[in-house]
Design goal:
heterodimer; A: 227 residues; alpha/beta; Rossmann fold; 2 domains; 6-stranded mixed β-sheet; 4-stranded antiparallel β-sheet; B: 275 residues; mainly alpha; 71% helix
Chain lengths: 227, 275
């Protein structure tokens, strides 16, 4: 999978949320979006999902133009802002309902996605009674249960304990190995730098810097050895 | 598309609110049986022994069941609450899907038009069913107690004027007349659920979505009464016992206008909304 974003801008009521963003992303890599609150990270993800139409610019996914050739990426899992599920359904029922839209996985795979994150598939507790952390875990399970080619995670570590954060990182690295393209945003740059191949820094809707944390750490190591 | 319609219909017909709506309708239905149908059935022998007089025509099924009489308080309440009974099962589901963020999960898995079509179909069918099931229950129970006599135009009550809509059908094939009205009730209940979907695009609160169709229903009723245009009031023409003044073309036109209002608002709003 390849995503190309050309001069993407989004203006809402005269406020520029995204300003001429251009990025290229390829499968088998983890990309990070770094920036303060309100910098435009979430809006960029919404645009890539096809949930929001850009004011200007283009998004190409595998040479298909988003909002023209396709209305959303064909194989995608996304958690944007907050997890969104039906309050009166259990976690498993919610995932099963979503998985039934394009049936590609069975109940066992849904259950295994939940278990991976420490959720109990047979738990009949309704989603509305879930704790914040459980809701977040269910949202993450929904993003990868169908083994999508593209995974977008907006602040995935919110409300998670350290152990769960480690599990999510393991899952992301595993999905990367399997060839998925992963884009995640996080306010904690240390978390991003640990697992990302490339990080886009966004400020006030503008892309101000792109760097590869792994290469930078190697460079600083070499510098230290030199001195 | 088919898969999504199946899923949404499953959600609608297995939801708690569908059963609550049926329960409310059924309670009114049973109360009408207990307080009106059963007492009427107890007087049948008295009437049958004095059949010579048309004034003593016994209470019969087609003029006494919930959807066929205009005198009982339960019937009045049922038709007053009809828009709410129709909206409760699934009419507010688009609003709750949007507010909870569930829509975002759906829109990365299917096209908007698929979801909107499935939602409209499920809301329409569940709204119609929630209204018609209690009516059918009442009709079946009333049939256990009262004779399904052919309506008699000279009877003191329960007769409809000759110029009324489908009066010929009423006097010749009352069962067909009753089921035709049940179909009209089903369709209008479904339309009220569609109107709730439409208002979901603009409403910020769930209670507005649930109550708006009722307000519209009462508004149309008030205007129709004010202008002496009774044939336009769904609160009247949905009850098969009214008959008088009903016009099929008005029912058809008003149904199409209300359905159009609900569907167009829902469709345009749904297509344009971003998340």
């Amino acid at each position: 999978m390849k995503i190309e974003i050309h001069n993407l801008s989004k203006v809402i009521r005269k406020a520029t949320i995204l300003d001429q963003i251009s990025l290229v992303m390829e499968s088998g890599k983890i990309y990070g979006l770094q920036g303060r609150n309100g910098s435009g990270k979430t809006m960029l993800m919404r645009c890539i999902c096809g949930l929001v139409y850009p004011t200007e610019g283009e998004i190409w996914i595998d040479e298909k133009k988003l909002n023209q050739d396709i209305s959303f990426p064909q194989s995608i899992g996304a958690l944007i802002e907050n997890p969104g599920f039906i309050g009166s359904y259990s976690g498993f029922q919610n995932l099963k309902l979503l998985a039934s839209i394009n049936p590609t996985i069975d109940d066992a795979q849904i259950a295994s996605s939940m278990e991976r994150l420490g959720l109990i598939p047979d738990d009949r507790k309704k989603y509305r009674k879930y704790s914040l952390g459980m809701k977040q875990k269910l949202g993450i399970a929904a993003t990868f249960m169908e083994n999508p080619d593209l995974i977008l995670l907006d602040e995935p570590f919110n409300a998670l304990d350290e152990k769960s954060i480690a599990v999510v990182k393991d899952i992301l690295l595993e999905k990367k190995k399997q060839g998925a393209l992963i884009l995640l945003s996080c306010h904690d740059h240390e978390d991003l730098e640990q697992i990302c191949d490339e990080i886009f820094v966004i400020q006030d809707g503008k892309q101000i810097r792109t760097y590869s944390p792994l290469k930078e750490s190697e460079r600083s190591k070499t510098n230290e050895e030199g001195t | 598309m088919k898969q999504l319609i199946k899923l949404e219909i499953g959600r609608a017909f297995h939801g708690r609110m569908f059963y609550i709506s049926i329960l409310i309708g059924s309670i009114l239905s049973l109360l009408q049986i207990v307080f009106h149908v059963i007492p009427a059935s107890m007087k049948i022998d008295l009437y049958l022994t004095e059949m010579d007089s048309p004034r003593l025509y016994p209470g019969w099924l087609f003029s006494s069941w919930l959807g066929g009489n205009v005198f009982d308080i339960e019937s009045f309440l049922f038709y007053l609450l009809l828009p709410i009974l129709a909206v409760l099962p699934f009419g507010d589901s688009y609003f709750t899907d949007r507010k909870s963020g569930y829509l975002k999960n759906v829109y990365i898995r299917t096209k908007k038009k698929n979801y909107l079509t499935a939602k409209a179909a499920a809301a329409f069918l569940s709204g119609g069913a929630a209204v018609v099931i209690p009516l059918l229950l009442n009709l079946a129970l009333a049939a256990l107690f009262l004779p399904a006599l052919k309506p008699e135009s000279t009877a003191p009550y329960g007769s409809i004027a000759e110029e009324s809509m489908w009066s010929g059908l009423y006097y010749s094939s009352p069962w067909a007349y009753v089921f035709a009205y049940l179909l009209i009730d089903f369709i209008f209940a479904g339309i009220f659920a569609l109107i709730a979907l439409g208002i979901s695009q603009a409403a910020d609160y769930r209670f507005i979505v649930i109550l708006f169709p009722l307000f519209l229903y009462l508004f149309i009723y008030s205007i129709a009464k004010l202008l002496h245009a009774h044939a336009f009031a769904p609160a009247d023409f949905l009850n098969s016992g009214f008959g008088s003044g009903n016009s099929f073309s008005i029912i058809l036109g008003e149904g199409a206008a209300l359905a159009g209002l609900g569907l167009v608002t829902f469709w345009i709003g749904g297509r344009q909304e971003t998340y």
